[in-house]
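Support case: calcium ion complex. Customer-provided input:
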Amino acid sequence: MVQEGQPQVREKGVWRANVRLWFVAVISITLLSACFIASCVVTYHFTYGKTGKRLSELHTYYSSLTCFSEGTRVTEKVWGCCPNAWKPFGSSCYFISTEKRFWSKSEQNCVGMGAHLVVINTEAEQNFIIQQLNESFSYFLGLSDPQGNGKWQWIDQTPFDENVRFWHQNEPNFSAEQCASIVFWNPGKWGWNDDFCDTKRNSICEMKKIYL
Ligand code: BGC
Ligand code: CA
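Agent response - structure generated as follows:
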């Protein structure tokens, strides 16, 4: 019912109510949009971002990761993570496979776990790895000489460094042995041996840590 009298006061009241309604509507829409955009960014980061892509890739093989706080300064602190059964060292995770396979099957096994056969880049890495091994077995490395001409190649294309070679004495010794393994030979020393690719050996897989 339209009331008589004071029409201006009434119109002002209606106008104020409208403004308030619009204000609430605009604020709500803005907030909803902000939430929507934020959730898109978060979803994108964890679905398509580098970390998220690797996390979801690893999740297809591993149900849980173990993470260690890394970095010395508080501002640099990140979490470096490896799948549970893997050993962390430097920026990598290592898995010692005690199932014996040919070299190419050993590599396939690593690839199937999102990794590759180990690439040894430093003496520190070699020293870490030998602490994980059983002296009774040989373990395939990600190192091969596919042509049998002494051109040894790391499986991830890392150049084969003159200064980072841990061959046993008198190895490599046979061009038909085109895959490298690491083995403990007397007198009490771990080192590399050129070995037959179609011999069944234990193996060592390596993958990059995932940083959170
Ligand atoms: C291995 C060779 C190795 C030799 C050293 C053999 O049993 O198969 O790869 O070079 O031992 O003595
Ligand atoms: Ca040999």
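The longest strand covers residues 92-101.

Case will auto-close in a few days if no follow-up is received.
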